[in-house]
Structure formats: C-alpha cells, structure tokens
Amino acid sequence: MSAHRPKRPITLIAAAAALSVAASAALAQDKTFELKLSHWVPPTHPLQKAMEEWGASIEKASNGTIKSKVFPSQQLGKAFDHYDMARDGIADLTYVNPGYQPGRFPIISAGELPFLVGDAKGGIRAIDAWYRKYAPSEMKDVKYCFSFILDPLTWHSSKKKIVVPADIKGMKVRPSQATVAAWVTLLGGTNVQASATEVRDVMEKGVAEAVTFPWGSVPLLGVDKVTKYHMDAPLHTVTFQWLMSPRTYAAMSAAQKKVIDDHCTTEWAGKFADPWA
After folding, report:
1. Contact by Cβ (8 Å): 89, 245
2. Residue 171 has what DSSP assignment?
3. Average pLDDT over residues 89-111
4. Band (122; pLDDT cuts 50, 70, 90)
5. Where does the pLDDT of residue 224 fall: very low under 50, low under 70, confident under 90, or very high at 90 and above?
6. Which of 38, 50, 55, 179 could form a disulfide with 68 if both were Cys (CB 3.0 to 4.6 A apart)?
7. Residue range 123-131: average pLDDT?
8. Rounded to whole angstroms, how far apart are CA atoms 224 and 158?
9. Helices 46-61 and 254-262 meet at what angle, rounded to 10?
10. Once rounded to an integer, what is the mean pLDDT over residues 240-256?
C-alpha cells in the first residue's frame, strides 16, 4: 500500500505563488510616479542619503512604478513652509520641524520637553510609536509617514558662557523649537527666528549670540566657526516628521499605497534617522 501524501501544503504554496504573481502584475500595470522629496539641509547632511535609500527601497518594492528625486537646501521652499508644501502638493514628501510653527502642533510639542530623551536611537522609536495615535487628528492635512528625533541638544554661545538659567537674561538666542523659545522669553532673553541652516549666518552677524544645537550638527552646519562656549549637557531634543502629500497618496493604486505604508513605519523611522541620530 502506498503512503498517502497530503496535498494541502502544495496547494498553499501554489496559491501563495499565484498571489505573488498577481501582485507583481498589478504593480506592473500601475502608472509611474516620480516623487519629489524635499528637505532644507545641505546635500552633505546624512538625511540626504537616508532619503535616497528610502526612495530606492520604495522603487524596488513597487517594481519601478514609484521613483523619487531628492531636493535639498530649500530648493522647493523655505524650511518653515514644509508642512504646507506637503499639504498643498508642492512636494510629494517633506521633512518637517513642527517647532518652527509655535502653537500649531501642540501634541507633538510634548516631545520637546527637557530631559525627556537621553538617547536618540531609542527615543526615535518611542516618539513615533506614541505619536501615531495623534497624528491623524493633529496633522490631518497630510499623509503621516513617521516621526523621528535627533540626539539631545545643548547650549552653544559666542560671547559668554551659559552655565545657569540666569545667564540667558539679555541674550539674543536662536531657539531650536517653540519650547526653548518659551524658556528664553521666561528667562529674559530675546528670540531670533532662523532655520538650522541659517544659524551660522545669524551668529556671524551678531543677530544671535547663542543657540541650542546637537553636537553632531555643530561642525556639519559650520556653527563651530561662530561659537566659543559650549555646555556639555543633554537638555532636550527636537521632533521631526516625514510627511506625504495626501493627493499623491490618493492617486496611487492599492498596491502602491501598500508599498508606501510599508515604508511609513516605526521601523523605517529608525532606519531613516540612525545615520544622523
């Protein structure tokens, strides 16, 4: 008597193969997108490569139907406008610092509180996992992809040391986000608005005398050339978002949307920021 071999595993394998072929065929029939990925830091910044790698992974996963090009250095718009650029479709994906618009995003600003994060790599995953619950209501004008942070920031100044809070009185400070701006006002300082890429210029001209910056960005953006004093203490961090134009997302097929969704995860938030954090 010959042994009876169950056919179910073979059937399941055949079904899975058929589904895979069908998914590939569906992607092959989709229209092609060339996404504009916009940021406001120099092309030498680690985020440039992170965006290129994110885009390359999407192109591969979509069988070449979703391509992308990175636009650095505010080529498509000012740093302060990047949320609205995603909302309005000026760019398909944008790198956003919500702290550049005080009061507009109060929930995510909780991530700006002092002494909340000691390590960026662990903090990135915690911040993104927490904020996913609130992003659909607070950032409802866009397709939320993920949040990330950088290593804790500290004080860097040009004219005098900052050792205690009272030292801020009378100083002109470029705050990294809205919570720092509130501290500066409370302590008797004056806030100077400037994006991260403008910090060297405003300090060189004496428009600002101090800034809160992560150590890694000090040489990267030339702030070491215009500062003399540095506090070696992890004070606070800054949250960032990677956001997508809702119109672009809506125009995609179900298969293409899944590719995007698979790249808008907490895991990808970590991959995206790890070279910098």
Report:
1. yes
2. -
3. 96
4. confident
5. very high
6. 55
7. 95
8. 10
9. 140
10. 99
Residue recorded with tokens 């956001």: 243
Phi, psi of 146 (to 5 degrees): -165, 165
Q: Which of 127, 168, 112, 167 is nearest to 266 (CA)?
A: 127
| pLDDT (0 to 100) of residue 2 | 44
CA angle, corner 144, sides to 141 and 150, nearest 5?
120
Return the beta strands (E) in 72-225 as ranges: 93-96, 143-149, 153-157, 172-174, 190-191, 210-214
What angle do helix axes 254-262 and 8-29 make, rounded to 10 degrees? Answer: 100
Q: Is the pLDDT of residue 26 over 70?
A: no
Sign of CA dihedral 246, 250, 251, 252: positive
Q: b or e along 183-219 (b: 16 or more beta carbons within 10 Å of the residue's beta carbon)? A: bbeebebebbebbbbbbbebbeeeebbbbbbbbebbe
Q: Domains plus CATH for the chain? A: 32-151+238-273 (3.40.190.170), 153-230 (3.40.190.10)
